């Protein structure tokens, strides 16, 4: 066969792909995440990869993202249509682009299907999003985000905020990635605090963004940046003192309530403390272990659409990974196309990046290269009907099976099974075929036993469960 | 909240999206399909949505497809980078586009990871593909294909071809869409037949394409088209006679073997019959019921890369839907980037289109709008700790639960549960809280019973299984 010359068949820069061992891990994690999301009643949706550009830019929150616009490329035999296509709104001139997050599409989805949805609308979405970032370490241009959001019409109970830490905890306990801590804060507390130290209303978002960078840039830099914003030395000192308040949940709530009493004018601060108190109360009633979460006054989430509760999740001992699950409550995001108040609360797991980093750090391991648990070996071609039949019996019992159609010697077939991480080999020669038995070899333990074909499925199932 | 004016928030033409009821059906079908694929040892992969244009066009088989090229759109605050980006190979000038099928990407994937894969390489892939088709009924510009392919190096046993009908059968029996028939043929038989009636080698593919259209255009049109190709009247008559040969599997094989004996020169015909015989033998040994498949000499698959076995699947009584699962064997497709012979065999289910058409035809029904099976109602806010606790107990038992945080009257909450298709409501008032019981209402049967909280999960599980 002639080789097609000179084609660079590598993936475009920033678009890596998983090996089967890694993709199987992703599928496994998606199953876990989906199951937890569904256990709280979140329902799946999927929005198109391609949206109208005006939709994607509606919130003005393209932010720093490079969006990928699309333009049709006609096949050589249809170049004549080009002019027509360029004129047709259906084919060319209406600007469309790839979605860069799942929040704007959620807003559009709700606007598109308002009368078909029930509210509060709790949805999960695990689609790919696309950003033309400069491709550098761990930054992908296509990546999967596993998001949940609950959206209400006009109002939304704070208990939805309380469910988020319970969901995060369940997911990461099931994924078994080690000790983690969910850091909870409320942006109203930060806003109220900055009001109380005399920061002007139009500067508050900038100040919050600065302290949100505390871990990245350090305290000295935070002070400098606050100074650049024109905050007084006293204000800066108070800020540093404030965001460094530490303690158990109860201690933190006590201190915040105490502070709020000493700030008679700070309505927003008080509201923030009350909201946080309600949320923490809900988290407790949901049975989340106290070592899984804390109140951290220094976290704020960069995105300025958050208005209340915010979350970040730190993998203890691996702080450099950054937050592995973040989110918060927002008021003015989802109703953008309808002009209606639609408060929401949500979290997001950047799964592609998380897997890639957890694999690199050795916290997670790739799975076997195949889902097959058993390989039925080919000892002699004339017994193939037996091999096919035994394979089907095992599949009917829920076992994943590869039948070897390989005519090479057994040792080669064993190698192939081992290389793919298959645990069991079933060996049937003419003697076994007559006696309706099989040799079952466990490639993990190197143990080999004789089993009657009738008991084979049960025997394998039992060993798989160990 | 101010409405963002004039934004057309509808999906772009040709990019529909599912409601939750429909998306849940898709998720359910994907689970079924994946499970069957994995039971035969197929392993998941996913290739990037975006590939180099030269990769997508490598096989020259953009065909009639309009490909979506991509071009970065800088955010307003980064327009200055535009010139630079246009010059940089990393950002602009290297042509990239959205994948339009999964076969070319599979070839690229194998080339990219050759040394990390084991062969025969059996993979499944259920990604979205993109084609700039004119959006007309049932034609989408973004759709999910659920593909499997097994690819060998140099050779590949025909028993892989035999597995495909077994896989198709299992999937559609599990989806429970009614009676279907897998039509099997071998393109070598058609090629050999046309040789035998004197059709020139360079015309054979065109003739095969014509008879492949038999169902679409009818016999009269097929005759006309063959005549246009310059086939003799005698040849046309023989062709019509040939593709109309009907009978049971054994009758068909008998007739084909008989024909091949009367064609001493037709090596390719003979080879095709031998291959078909081997494949059918394998299908039988895999235990596929005989009413699920047949030999149909008129099917060929339009795509001219198929070289041997071909499959189409017809839903009986709904022939107008076209083939619901098709595929075949190819020789010169996957090795294109490596210049190596890599025979493969695969099938594809065009899931998005299939779901959309089966829903329209009433063959499949949407699922409930939420995965939640239970709603724990809110009778009085002060019992919320109890509601949260009971909800968590049920979730631990594997039940999907929505806790109602609604403070409105119970009837409204019942309505909300019903509208979303939730089967059970759990009602706990102060009396129940004291006695550690709950009222369990089955919204399907309208039955209501009192259950102790300790037995609640078991009671619901039992009723869900009925």
UniProtKB/TrEMBL annotation, chains A, B:
Stretches for region Disordered: 71-94
Binding site for L-histidine: 101-103, 131, 145, 149, 301, 305-306
SUPFAM superfamilies linked to this entry: Class II aaRS ABD-related, Class II aaRS and biotin synthetases
Biased composition (Basic and acidic residues): 79-89
Domain of life, source organism: Bacteria
Residues in Aminoacyl-transfer RNA synthetases class-II family profile domain copies: 29-371
Protein name (Swiss-Prot/TrEMBL): Histidine--tRNA ligase
Organism from which the protein derives: Brunnivagina elsteri CCALA 953
Gene expressing this chain: hisS
